[in-house]
Amino acid sequence: MAEATSTDPRTGEVVETVAPHTADSEVDRICRAAAQAAPELAARDRLWRAGMLEAVAQALEEDRPGLVPLADRESALGRTRLDGELTRTAHQFRAFAAHVRKGAYLEAAVDRPADTPMGPRPDVRRMLLPLGPVAVFGASNFPLAFSVPGGDTASALAAGCPVVVKAHPAHPATSERAFTLIERAARDAGAPEGTLGLVHGMEAGTALVRHHSIRAAAFTGSTRGGRALFDLACSRPDPIPFYGELGSVNPLAVTPGAARARTEQIAEGAVASFTQGAGQFCTKPGLILLPADRAGRDLAQAMAERVADLPAQTLLAASIRDAYGEGSREGSGTRLLAQGLPADGSGWSVPVRLLAAEASSLDPHQVQECFGPTALVVFYDGPDELHRLLRDLPPSLAASVFSEPDEGELRARLQDTLWTRTGRIVYDGYPTGVAVTGAMHHGGPWPATTNALHTSVGTTAIRRFLRPMAWQNAPQDVLPDELRDHPVHPVPRREG
Questions:
Q1: Secondary structure class of 397 (helix, strand, coil)
Q2: Where in the chain is the domain with CATH 3.40.605.10?
Q3: 234 has catalytic annotation
């Protein structure tokens, strides 16, 4: 039987065998346990669920000395970065706990009997209920914030749904340790058996999406892998929602005025952003659009000078390294503008690369995301060509605009184009930081995601794992507490 092995990206050597790939029979057992836990978990009151989320956050933080070094050994992302990632993850669980306590996410509504122009209206009450067991696919680039622990797991548990996680093969040992922590914390808080499950292996992931007990799936990864699972979810006898975060090039547009006024500042910030985390952020600004005038060329040269001094960076996996080699090469219409210090050949290390192209020789429809420390500078000739580029590029998770106060007309025109092409517009800043807030939207039109209506970051992410239910002329004793005339734990609700 195939096995999940833990590899050190810095050396490329296998450190340990973590677990066998999960057999179909075991996937079936785990999914059935999740289905059995679902009604009991959904019936628990919100305050208990909030306490469980807080217990998970505490368990993760208490194991910081063990979890962070292990995640670093499997990802080479650095302990400082991973320490912050663990803090973010604990914050997410606590943020969802507070969100659940307030109860506004339930969208509770009560329409009492009344005479209307359409005739007598019955008593109708509505709120959102847990969808059922959720499959979560761990991401390679966030072993602590988008994998076994993280936003998808936190939001599904907050909604009242059991979670079965498919561990990412890049960090199976971290996945096992994190799973043990959060499963024990949930169980100690009183969660029913089957609330959390973990599987390993590609075939197990396929079986997970196909299993009749799974009611939704959340995925962060490649367009190819996500599309295959999305099609599988849609082709089931009972199709389920599939929330996939896929590829995104995230354009960063610099206006002529900004290029002149902030040459060095933008050069420094852009290089720092596209190389952060070895360029393995889904929000990396992979396409930097500069004016084809003297100021734009000077800005590109300032970026190239910074890139030339950067050391090689270690990627998460051999497959990402190989894809980087292909995606960061010179090609039709593109040229190498600068390259950092060479890799020493150990592990999955690669040099930083900055490519360049003229907009007139670039086919925007062919621009694809390249995971790793690389970006493509594109020189545009005037506002019309910039508008055409942004209109024709693949949709993205985020887009950035750098402009000056006297360029309001151009800025407004860019926004008119971008709001149909992206999920977040960042002004005079970089998209690689994604705040965990109620107002954050981390999503976008295909191929950025499979569902542009929802976010995978922030408290609104809970909405993916809830469904509406209405009660008509229902006796008080069968209504959820939140919809009764005198609830024990009141929530904001619309009264009509």
A1: coil
A2: 3-246+449-495
A3: no
pLDDT digits (tens, 9 = 90+) for 295-318: 999 999 999 999 999 999 999 999
Q: Which residues pair with 378 in a beta bridge?
A: 289, 357
CATH number for the segment(s) 3-246+449-495: 3.40.605.10
More confident call, 86 vs 496? 86
Contact 198, 20 (CB under 8 A): no
pLDDT tens per residue, range 27-74: 999 999 999 999 999 999 999 999 999 999 999 999 999 999 999 999
Q: Which two tokens stand for residue 464?
A: 């993916």
Question: Is 245 designated active site?
Answer: yes
The CATH T-level fold of domain 251-427 is Aldehyde Dehydrogenase; Chain A, domain 2 (3.40.309)
Are 220 and 243 spatial neighbours (Cβ–Cβ below 8 Å)? no
Q: Where in the sequence of the chain do the CATH 3.40.309.10 domains occur?
A: 251-427
Longest alpha-carbon distance in the chain: 79
What pLDDT shows up at residue 109?
Answer: 98
Predicted local distance difference test score (pLDDT) of residue 334: 93
What backbone phi and psi angles, to 5 degrees, belong to 429?
-160, 180
Set 54, 85, 245, 369: catalytic member: 245
Catalytic residue among 31, 161, 282, 370: 282
Q: Which residues of 119-152 are buried (b: 16+ CB within 10 A; e: fewer)?
A: eeeeebbbbbebbbbbbbbbbbbbbbbbbbbbbb
Q: Read off the pLDDT of residues 65-103 as tens digits, 9 standing for 90 and up.
A: 999 999 999 999 999 999 999 999 999 999 999 999 999
Pairing verdict, β 493-495 and 108-111:
parallel
Please state, in angstroms and rounded to a whole number, the distance separating the CA atoms of residues 342 and 320: 17
Whether residue 365 has pLDDT greater than 90? no
